[in-house]
């Protein structure tokens, strides 16, 4: 009897019992995604400024915890490019990359962002994801991709020094340069010509063997020793209050960006399966994954869109594929970390650049411009602020959110109000745009495509008053109210005042197609009580018949 309520909070109870056939397909899918996930996880740890082994920690238990509490069972949870660069950028200036203090602050970022997502999902407030619009995420991801590539160029090119040293007598490690550029080229060739081949893993293995055979570790930068074994429980000390407060804004942006990455992958899975997407439950899973990552001594996780797509299209059916992938990562942690010792750092940088290059789509700004110029500007401003504010790149997302909300508020305060006329096709359209005759002589017929509330009421009142001032011979005002689906106290007050104004001038108010919720509120307020100068019509056809524009 308790199973339905338990399965609401523990979605894994609804998984099918595995049999040999199911497990065979799930393990195959897990192997397919693991050969991409393991190199990326190690590389993204470096992008976040963390010890490289923490990339595997962020993949192992967090991925398992997230899938157990998520409704979408084929999300690849672990390090992602955007979350990793956010971590690295957010902590610059607060600690030394790779140090114990850096790890401590990264753990607190994971705990804070995870707690935010868990709270939003558990309270059923997934609607908050709408605060980050698609143009904001587009602008941020384009700018972040450029910053990620720029951060990886020194290692990729074997540059001995920062990127700025290219302008002042740069010195190169030619072997590192060769490792980086050849690996990047092979990744691209493999992705385009041999997509089913585990190119990343093969190139990584070949580079490690070549590096070992030539003794590259003695004269160049390699991954080095990674501790073997499972992550220990990490209970972070409480940092100084000012430091903790400085982590709140980055944690909020991490939670928002991670949620949008999760949504992009989860929607594809739900559409493919023909099921309703449970955003709240998936947010719970993401939050639990981050909390587990923090307690593993690692950095915030997210959902990788590319790896989730690989999981989905490689034939995974259930969460058992993720369980199998966790088992593969466990084997790597226990036995295979020494194999990564000789991998050149340039190859890891090539892994990051190859993954991030897929995010670079400058054409999206042109496409947005064709759809909505304001949204295109929002994306461009978000991208610009993200680059200019680096390393505090989270300000780009926050600025984009503020611009999006300001645009939304502007539209609510400036609703679309038009004077309508009868089009030859029988529809009511903008009279001035289509050059149509008035509905009837001495009549002002208008339609407002918005709710009649505190935000739009003044604009509605102003439209009527200005028309009456410009046309003193008006004897009828007809409101086609079908688009108005809600009215609040301010709307009732303005409607009542407008009725008194019209009645004082001997003008009859006609209201067509008023919705029942709006009519109920107006009747309770007594705004429809006196019908001497008021005419109500259930449909627009009735109103047009009354004005003689249609034959009975």
From TrEMBL:
The keyword Transmembrane applies. It comes from the Bacteria. It is a multi-pass membrane protein. GO terms for biological process: transmembrane transport. This is STAS domain-containing protein. It comes from Ramlibacter pinisoli. GO terms for cellular component: membrane. Keywords: Membrane, Transmembrane, Transmembrane helix.
């Amino acid at each position: 009897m308790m199973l339905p309520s338990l399965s609401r909070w523990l979605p894994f109870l609804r998984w099918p019992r595995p049999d040999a056939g199911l497990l065979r397909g799930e393990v195959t899918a897990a192997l397919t995604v693991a050969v991409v996930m393991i190199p990326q996880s190690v590389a993204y740890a470096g992008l976040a400024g963390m010890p490289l082994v923490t990339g595997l920690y962020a993949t192992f238990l967090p991925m398992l915890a997230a899938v157990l509490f998520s409704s979408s069972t084929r999300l690849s949870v672990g390090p992602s490019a955007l979350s990793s660069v956010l971590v690295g950028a957010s902590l610059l200036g607060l600690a030394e990359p790779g140090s114990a203090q850096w790890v401590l602050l990264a753990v607190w970022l994971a705990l804070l962002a995870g707690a935010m997502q868990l709270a939003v999902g558990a309270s059923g407030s997934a609607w908050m994801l709408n605060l980050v619009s698609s143009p904001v995420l587009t602008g941020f991801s384009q700018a972040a991709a450029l910053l990620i590539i720029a951060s990886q160029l020194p290692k990729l090119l074997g540059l001995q020094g920062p990127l700025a040293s290219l302008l002042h007598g740069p010195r190169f490690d030619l072997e590192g340069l060769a490792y980086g550029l050849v690996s990047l080229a092979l990744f691209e060739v493999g992705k385009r010509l041999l997509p089913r081949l585990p190119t990343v893993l093969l190139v990584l293995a070949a580079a490690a063997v070549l590096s070992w055979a030539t003794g590259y570790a003695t004269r160049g930068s390699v991954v080095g020793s990674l501790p073997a074994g499972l992550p220990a429980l990490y209970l972070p000390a409480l940092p100084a209050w000012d430091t903790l407060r400085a982590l709140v804004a980055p944690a909020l942006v991490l939670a928002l960006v991670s949620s949008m990455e999760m949504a992009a992958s989860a929607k594809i899975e739900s559409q493919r399966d023909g099921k309703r997407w449970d955003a709240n439950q998936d947010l719970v899973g993401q939050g639990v994954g981050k909390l587990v990552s923090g307690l593993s001594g690692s950095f915030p996780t997210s959902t990788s869109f590319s790896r989730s797509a690989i999981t989905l299209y490689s034939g995974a059916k259930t969460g058992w594929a993720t369980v199998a992938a966790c088992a593969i990562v466990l084997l790597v942690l226990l036995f295979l970390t020494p194999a990564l010792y000789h991998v050149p750092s340039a190859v890891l940088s090539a892994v990051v650049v190859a993954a991030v290059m897929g995010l670079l789509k400058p054409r999206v700004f042109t496409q947005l411009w064709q759809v909505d110029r304001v949204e295109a500007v929002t994306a461009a401003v978000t991208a610009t602020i993200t680059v200019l504010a680096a390393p505090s790149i989270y300000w780009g997302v926050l600025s984009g959110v503020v611009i999006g909300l300001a645009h939304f508020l502007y539209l609510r305060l400036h609703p679309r109000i038009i004077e309508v006329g009868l089009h030859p096709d029988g529809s009511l359209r903008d009279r001035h745009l289509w050059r149509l005759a008035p509905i009837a002589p001495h009549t002002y017929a208008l339609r407002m495509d918005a709710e009649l509330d505190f935000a739009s009421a003044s604009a509605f009142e102003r439209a009527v008053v200005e028309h009456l001032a410009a046309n003193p011979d008006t004897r009828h005002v007809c409101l086609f109210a079908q688009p108005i689906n809600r009215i609040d106290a301010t709307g009732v007050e303005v409607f009542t005042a407008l009725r008194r104004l019209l009645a004082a001038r001997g003008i009859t108010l006609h209201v067509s197609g008023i919705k029942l919720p709006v009519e109920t509120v107006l009747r309770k307020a007594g705004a429809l009580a006196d019908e001497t100068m008021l005419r109500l019509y259930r449909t627009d056809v009735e109103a047009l018949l009354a004005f003689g524009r249609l034959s009975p």
